[in-house]
Amino acid sequence: MSNKEKESIQLLQGTLDLIVLRSLATMGPQHAYQIATRLQQISDQLLNLNQGTLYPALMRLEQYGWIKGTWGRTESNREAKYYEITKAGRKALGTETQAWRRMSALVERLLLKES
Amino acid sequence: MKHLRRIFARFYLLFANSKVEAELAREIGAHLGFLEDEYLRLGMAPEDARRAARLAYGGVEQATQLHRDERAFQRLGQILQDTRYAFRQLRRSPGFTVTAILMLALGIGATTAIFSLVEGVLLRPLPFPEPDRLVILGDVLEGSHCASCAQSSVTTPDIRNYMRDTQSFSHLGGYRARLFELSGTGDPAVVQDAVNLEIHLIKRFLHVQHMLCRYLDQTAAVSPERTNSADEARRTEAGSQQTHRMEVLKPLAVGHVGLPAGNILYVLRVDETHL
Asked: Which of B28, B66, B69 to mutate to test the interface with A (most CBs of A within 10 A)?
């Protein structure tokens, strides 16, 4: 086992939704495999993304009405379901990002105070 | 808002299960395809690439189950499934179904009946203050051979004697149920369920309120006013064009000759039930 795998992080509950939304907002419509690959690349392989959690997250976001999936074809002519962020999704991304920043800043401050 | 939307979606997907399941299988298939392509590009043999893709993806079945749990109310779905199964089974064996339903009906009916009885007899108190101190006094006639004579009621002179000679009760009084004829200036009417009751018993110890008229003293003389009241009671009955069941109290004249006829009465209750 390499060092990097040992250090891999399990995502906090609920943060995957935010990350997926952000990714879709930046990159435009993507299918699940692209999202997974991109998250791994950006996190420098630190993110231990279980495929079993990605699909439920996508479906949850779809049920919220924040993303919309449509079937299409890739350049290599494989079929794939492309997910696109909706208007409501962009709005939610804004508020959720704010909430996360406040939350992480708070935890950070508490950790500093206590050390 | 987002939660409301999701709740609807999760309900809806309970009924569109096969469609979503197929869609998910298609999506996972596509995902495995991409992984396979990746391994092929790295120079693996097609067979190895396929296996490697499956390994990299992890447990397909677990992933599918996670998806199921997330997309719909699985518990509810299971309950629905179980219910459907139960109904199918019941329809397949009508004999068993009928027996089961009859047993249930009988069980519920019997329980209800017994409870009503217990409630009426044991649990619900009598509509008087301190009902636990209320007793009915009767004579025991020794040597008598008929069933109802064993505990027979007392006679009017007996009541007077008991009232005079016993100290065990805070008060004693007599009552007698019978039909009454109610007459005044108009046509006479029959009053059913009339009760002759010793007046102090009603007023002081049972705290019974009358609906019409007023209490009469045992020695009270007839006055026009009271006659009017009696008429009024009858008019109330006749005016509503209904046969009423009336409970009427009349003072029981213990030790007196009795009240002059045509002079009564305390209407305690007027039921709307038809006789």
From this structure: B66
